[in-house]
């Protein structure tokens, strides 16, 4: 029956950091520094936990298919935009592609970046087209516009995963103005950057801004994603979306998280302070970052070699070898709890 599997799912899928975690456990580490998945090192807001716990009592019922209460909370927090929701940013991306991409359509992707854009595009029959960034991983608007010609949708992540750098809003505006199709702007890490892309929504009707509760809002395990979309696209998204894609408990937790902005500010302040320390104290070149992680050049080691060596010492980081368009000598290091970060700095000294 294996001949029935589509070609796009016969090779490598999304790469997780779980392999390094298994190595650490095998080596006898009960307390592992988990710095491989860009998670929050702190639990969710107490308000988020309370709202989720309360929502469990009515989990026998389907949730509101349009997530009206969560959308209202998003409008209060971020402005009067059209919002859609999904099971994590990945769920939003899949639905956007489902709604826009036919088999054979070109999907432009600014690389190196999050590999799931390409996976989701191929799953829909689209043809991913990588658009390499500059040598310092900055985005050349002219090149993106030129190479997005004929593309139904273009994906650009800012701050970018895994490089960490952000693209200025004026560059994004130039791209929106110049391309023929849609631009999906992945803002998963935007809370850690001093940048606001939302005003662009008032100028462009081909811009979608994806956001998540997995990072600064500390809800990675509940998978809550959302996007600000053009008003014309909102009903299209809803028609393409999997029914009841977001569960009621996760939605309730997200509303609780939005009601506690001070919790987010504490997490962002922690990340910002440690980002400075990582840049100053990691004994390898560290790329500038606007996210909750840094990209580290571990040459002459490969990223895979560095990941395995650190895992044997009880520290889990992510090799960047699986990111298309990036060399094999980088690791991506999330900013964790104080003890995790101190362990990383200590073990990197002897790597």
Description:
The protein has 351 residues and is an alpha/beta fold. The protein has helices at residues 18-26, 46-56, 68-78, 88-100, 116-123, 141-147, 169-178, 234-240, 248-258, 261-281, 303-311, 338-348; strands at residues 33-34, 82-87, 106-111, 127-132, 151-157, 182-186, 207-212, 224-229, 293-297, 315-316, 318-319, 330-334. The protein has two domains: 2-43 and 262-348, Aspartate Aminotransferase, domain 1 (Alpha-Beta Complex), CATH 3.90.1150.10; 58-258, Type I PLP-dependent aspartate aminotransferase-like (Major domain) (Aspartate Aminotransferase, domain 2). It is built from twelve helices and twelve strands. The strands form three sheets. It has a seven-stranded mixed sheet with strand order 2-8-7-6-5-3-4, sandwiched between helices. Helix 5 (116-123) links the parallel strand 3 (106-111) and strand 4 (127-132). The longest helix has 21 residues, at 261-281. It is globular, with a radius of gyration of 20 Å.
């Amino acid at each position: 029956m294996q001949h029935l599997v589509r070609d796009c799912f016969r090779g490598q899928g999304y790469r997780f950091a779980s392999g390094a975690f298994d190595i650490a456990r095998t080596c006898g580490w009960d307390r592992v520094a988990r710095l491989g998945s860009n998670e929050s090192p702190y639990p969710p807001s107490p308000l988020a936990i309370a709202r989720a716990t309360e929502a469990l009592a009515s989990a026998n019922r389907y949730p509101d298919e349009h997530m009206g209460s969560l959308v209202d909370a998003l409008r209060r927090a971020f402005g009067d935009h059209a919002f859609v929701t999904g099971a994590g940013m990945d769920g939003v991306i899949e639905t956007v592609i489902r709604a826009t991409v036919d088999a054979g359509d070109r999907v432009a992707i600014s690389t190196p970046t999050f590999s799931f854009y390409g996976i989701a595009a191929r799953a829909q029959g689209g043809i991913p087209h990588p658009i390499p960034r500059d040598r310092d991983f900055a985005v050349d608007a002219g090149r993106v516009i030129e190479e997005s010609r004929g593309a139904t949708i273009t994906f650009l992540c800012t701050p970018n995963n895994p490089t960490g750098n952000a693209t200025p809003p004026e560059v994004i505006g130039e791209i929106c103005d110049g391309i023929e199709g849609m631009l999906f702007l992945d803002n998963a890490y935007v809370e850690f950057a001093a940048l606001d892309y939302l005003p662009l929504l008032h100028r462009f009707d081909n811009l979608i801004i994806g956001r998540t509760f997995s990072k600064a809002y500390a809800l990675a395990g509940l998978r809550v994603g959302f996007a600000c979309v053009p008003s014309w696209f909102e009903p299209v998204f809803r028609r393409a979306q999997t029914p009841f894609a977001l569960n009621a408990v996760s939605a309730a937790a997200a509303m609780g998280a939005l009601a506690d902005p001070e919790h987010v500010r504490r997490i962002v302040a922690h990340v910002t302070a440690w980002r400075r320390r990582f840049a100053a104290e990691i004994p390898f070149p560290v790329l500038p970052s606007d996210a909750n992680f840094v990209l580290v050049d571990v040459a002459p080691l490969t990223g895979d070699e560095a990941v395995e060596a650190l895992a044997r010492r009880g520290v889990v980081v992510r090799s960047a070898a699986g990111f298309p368009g990036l060399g094999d000598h980088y690791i991506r290091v999330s900013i964790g709890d104080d003890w995790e970060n101190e362990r990383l700095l200590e073990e990197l000294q002897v790597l």
